[in-house]
Amino acid sequence: MVQRNELQKLIKLTGERAKLDAKANQSYVVYIDSNGNMIKEYFNGIKELLKDEDQEHG
Is the pTM of this model over 0.70? Predict the structure, then answer.
């Protein structure tokens, strides 16, 4: 149980770091929210829901 909590903490910190890097580089991060939706969050806080056709790779 302790290892799982440590892993969850590491994942959370990694996501927070990605958001800070996006802000510093005026970029964005993409993640899946708790509802299973893929979200693109820009450095200025604007969030965009990615649709299925946006998620496909060539």
Answer: yes
